[in-house]
Write a structure and sequence with these properties.
Elements: E1 17-23, H1 26-38, E2 43-46, E3 52-54, E4 59-66, E5 71-76, E6 80-86, H2 91-100, E7 103-104, E8 125-126, E9 129-130, E10 135-142, E11 147-152, H3 164-167, E12 172-183, H4 193-199, H5 209-222, E13 245-246, H6 248-252, E14 261-262, E15 268-269, H7 272-278, E16 286-287, E17 290-292, E18 300-302, H8 308-326, E19 335-337
Parallel strand pairs: 1-4, 2-4, 3-19
Antiparallel strand pairs: 5-6, 6-12, 7-12, 8-9, 10-11, 10-12, 13-15, 14-15, 16-17, 17-18
The chain binds flavin-adenine dinucleotide.
Flavin-adenine dinucleotide binds at residues 10, 44-52, 66, 87, 112-115, 117-119, 121-122, 124-126, 173-174, 225, 227, 234, 236-238, 335.
């Protein structure tokens, strides 16, 4: 019987796959990709399914779920820890492992769902840090050349919620990621006001890495940003839209209390959640089975009986409201499969 993709996505949405492969080793992963490509069969690589919205018709091709496991590491006094982790490993289990083993850096990125292999794709980030700061290299299988290719950090072309792997969609299968982390007990300086408040410290202070992780996990739980089967507010794909980066002229026209984070290229990042709320989108708003999370306006959720098209309708109306009020077009963070916004 065809596998239903809804079993494999955090939105609990997605119709059947024509063929579904659980790739448990790197050999199986590369063989499955090569086979689909040489047969001209549509191919979808999946990790934890926490950043995808898959249509109710499903996927008329091969879905390969990356379930490769394993890590290796070395530590020395100069370079700290060099840790290589297989693409199919769970992101947060790795974060916890790194903290338990006295590596510094990952604490702000605690609790993000998904796999190691997906982490460089949209350069995951939270609480003032992004994974690009800690990646030494990414090893891939290049579907175009049929060869393996390793990218140094600079070659990955990391940007805010983007990378070369996202821009050249469907070309590179990520096999493993190598991180470089310092050893220590204290966190990186706290860069995010809400986290500093929760920890009762000032911006720039350091705390024990375990304390930083606990505070991040608590904040995420309050926003429905920690996966929990029993909490429908977490049946989402995380933030549906990225925070828009606009020109300084556009930023100057926003109301005085709009969040503004200046970027190194002179542009200004503002908050998608703030724009949505000011445009009238409210937590708990519903369209058929889809809803705006009751905890976080940026997360669109499946209230239990949503269709993928319900989520799309809600996303469209939120996007139109922001465009009408501020003239800014929100761009999705979520990857769409078999459905468009
Ligand atoms: C509750 C919740 C909270 C979240 N919070 C955050 C957050 O704070 N910060 C943040 O940045 N993101 C967040 N996200 C989004 C998501 O967790 C990340 O984008 C995560 O990296 C996705 O990992 P995944 O394994 O689930 O990827 P999937 O959803 O399975 O795939 C995402 C994309 O990557 C591709 N892909 C996956 N694995 C590979 C691979 N090995 N090789 C090539 N392509 C691959 C897929 O084809 C797809 O296009 C959140 C999501 C949820 C549900």
């Amino acid at each position: 019987m065809a596998e239903s993709l809804k079993e494999y996505t955090s939105l609990h949405l997605g119709g059947p796959a024509k063929r579904f492969i659980h790739a448990k080793s790197e050999g199986e992963l590369i063989a499955a990709v090569k086979e689909a490509d040489s047969a001209g069969e549509p191919l979808l690589i999946m990790g934890g399914g926490s950043n995808v919205l898959i249509g109710d018709e499903g996927f008329a091709g091969t879905v390969v779920r990356v379930e490769t496991k394993g890590n290796s590491f070395s530590v020395d006094a100069c370079s700290g820890g060099i840790i290589t982790v297989a693409a199919g490993e769970n992101w947060d289990e790795f974060v916890k492992w790194s903290i338990d083993n006295g590596f510094v850096g990952m604490e702000s990125l605690s609790g993000i769902p998904g796999t190691i292999g997906a982490s460089p794709i949209q350069n995951i980030g939270a609480y003032g840090h992004e994974v690009a700061e800690f990646i030494a290299r990414v090893r891939t299988f290049d579907r175009k050349s049929g060869e393996q290719k390793t990218f140094s950090n600079t070659e990955c072309g990391f940007e805010y919620r983007s990378s070369l792997f996202k821009r050249e969609k469907d070309r590179y299968v990520i096999l493993d990621v190598t991180f470089q982390l310092e050893k220590g007990e204290m966190s990186l300086p706290i860069k995010y006001e809400e986290l500093a408040r929760a920890l009762k410290v000032n911006l720039g202070d350091r705390v024990l890495i375990g304390d930083a992780r606990s505070a991040v996990l608590s904040l995420r739980a309050l926003k429905g940003m920690l996966l929990d089967e029993n909490d429908r507010d977490t049946w989402s794909a995380g933030s549906f839209f990225v925070n828009p980066i606009v020109t300084s002229e556009v930023a100057a026209k926003l109301p005085a209390d709009a969040p503004r984070w200046p970027q190194s290229d002179g542009r200004v990042k503002t908050s998608a959640a703030w724009l949505m709320e000011r445009a009238g989108v409210k937590k708990g708003d519903c369209h058929e089975g889809a809803g705006v999370s009751t905890k976080h306006v940026l997360a669109l959720v499946n209230n239990g009986n949503a269709k993928a098209s319900d989520i799309i309708e809600l996303a469209r109306s939120s996007r139109s409201a922001v465009k009408e009020k501020f003239g800014i077009v929100l761009e999705p963070e979520v990857q769409f499969v078999g459905i468009t916004l």
